[in-house]
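Progress note, project year one: complex with alpha-D-galactopyranose.
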Amino acid sequence: MVTMNCSSHKEAREFGKLPSGETVELYSLKNAKGVEADISTYGGVVVSLKVPDRSGALGDIVLGFDDFNGYLMPPPYFGALIGRYGNRIGHAQFTLDGVTYHLAKNDGDNSLHGGKRGFDKVLWTARPLGPQSLGLTYLSKDGEEGYPGNLSVTVVYTLTDNNELKIDYTATTDKDTVLNLTNHSYFNLAGQGQGDVLAHQITINASRFTPVDKGLIPTGELRAVAGTPFDFRQPHAIGERIGASDEQIVLGGGYDHNFVLDRAGEGLSPAARVTEATSGRVMEVLTTEPAIQFYTGNFLDGAIRGKGGKVYGRRSALCLETQHYPDSPNHPDFPTTELKPGAPYRSTTVFRFSTGS
Ligand code: GLA
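Model obtained:
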């Protein structure tokens, strides 16, 4: 890996300061077609992502803040890296190798997105890899947020000339642990702050999803999407069935569910495709992960003013968080999230942008 001093990277600038006095930097990546991504060393946040509409005009399609201090407010996790465990762990505990580990209860009785100070709230070390790629590293100490093992994590963001934002995650541990990394970008393909996403059309390559209880913890069932509002195997407008009386829609306040992907095999596999008619923007999501959390910003309520003073109302964005299933450490039947010394964690997700008619 090529390493450079942060200050020698011409695309880095100061984004803000932490209460501790530490400096947070913002790195701008740009590809040959002018697509731009700004990434913060705090939380590894994708602060902005500018991609063309059908006329070629660039628009910022992720929610976030112009001012760094916005990211210090209570977390909607805008754009952030999530760890050690994306989504929820029931009763904020799990047992591994006969030892029960207790986590912070930061979501009712459950632990959400890594706990009180997850990877979205730590300062990552930048390893600039050129104008189109940025590495971020973080060492999570044994016992941090209750999780075992010294965990060394590297995330590489790359903006390819195919208008893709590629995220490569790797990690190693010195003790058995659990891990489920993701990125929590909130997308609105019409442009951030341009109303709700109910008219966006989405396809999700999943025949099954994991129904949840009232705390949004998977019950353990893998339910067929056929005949339910969760069937996105053909494109549907997000708003078409979001008001349905389906028990799972009601529990989620909309979509806030883990979809089990119909994978083609090993490697990157198509997970979801989103289209927005007015801009013509298309986003495809490919991943090596077995599942994806489709969240429709149901908890946004207009209280947050984001970039350019835009009000972020309910369902003003969608998240597609590639992942293993929530609460896997408590579900031995789910694909395992255990990580052992000597067997590195690897995960890749690609967000590919194009335009259509
Ligand atoms: C995830 C969860 C949601 C919510 C958001 C953050 O998508 O599944 O329930 O917690 O993160 O607000």
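The chain has a mean pLDDT of 96.
The helical segments are 247-252.
No further modelling is planned for this target in the current period.
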